[in-house]
Hints:
Radius of gyration: 23 Å
Structural class: mainly alpha
Largest sheet: none
Order of helices and strands: HHHHHHHHHHHHHHHHHHHHH
Oligomer: single chain
Distance between the termini: 30 Å
Amino acid sequence: MARTTQRQGLTGPLVFAILSAAFGSSFLFGYNIGVINAPQTVMGLWIRKVKCSRIGNNSADESWGQWCPELDTQDKQEHMFENGTLNLIWSVVASIFCLGGLIGALTTSFFVNRFGRKGTLLINNVSGIIAAALLSFPSLAGSYEMLIAGRFVAGLNAGLNSGVPPMYFTEISPSSLRGAIGSVHQLFITIAIFVSQILGLPYILGNSYGWPILMGLTIVPCVVQLLTLPFCQESPKFLYLSKGDERGANDALVRLRKRTDIRDEMDEMKLEHEQMKNEPTVTFRDLFVNPFLRKITIIAVMLMVMQQLSGINAVMFYSTSIFRSAGLTPDQAAYATIGMVQKQT
Length: 345
């Protein structure tokens, strides 16, 4: 059985590299998407408390009535976000993650071509650790601005983590397993969203004392990846096609496949390398001027537009509130969100 598995290409070094990249990057990406959903009310009340503390006991202040009156249990659930300014602050906390993701995604090409796939994943942990620090301590610092900054940096991290792991997976895997291994990225994302919803339940970490820990747990995948990924191989395609390091690519393939006969894969990369030399450089303008590329660009853009217009981002960030507005109790809304994510997984 072990010989059959190895012959098919699924070796120990390959599995180790996939798990390291998937947990440290794909899982982190999914966790940052889902973690903000369940503790929304608790964190909103904390923002309200911070704003009130900045006003002080001056009840004559015009904004005192907006931030400082005590809310009973029912009011906390039903009326807290009728405060327009609080609603705006929370919208920024949730949506600035997407802005960071956009910026991070646009830098993917620069990083992967300069530092490699494995190198980019390791470097990206710097932003992951910074985000974890910013998201862990806003309660102690009494600063919701720190929370916003942390979500933005987490978005930068997620932007790179959205594209680099699947690239790394497909380039280190044998052709017979490329499709299956490529799907690991999305699998770990959905598992992470599910885990974040579980941990965000009120009796676990989704409460006034636990939410900073819930946010700060993002440091765990970063640390695990920093400890494990250095022992993994860089993408052989990057080494050969981008760096021209044929020997390095050969050594990486030998370690990943755990066999010395890797001539077919090396020949395939050599052929691809020769084809790349003869292909003209494609510019951004060509995507719209060249009829063939324009058609592909329109298809890709429309797929992404339709995905976003489906409302999936609103569901990921606000499903608990949506279920609450539909008449569910807080506990029912939390479990409905978990059930939705589990169905998606």
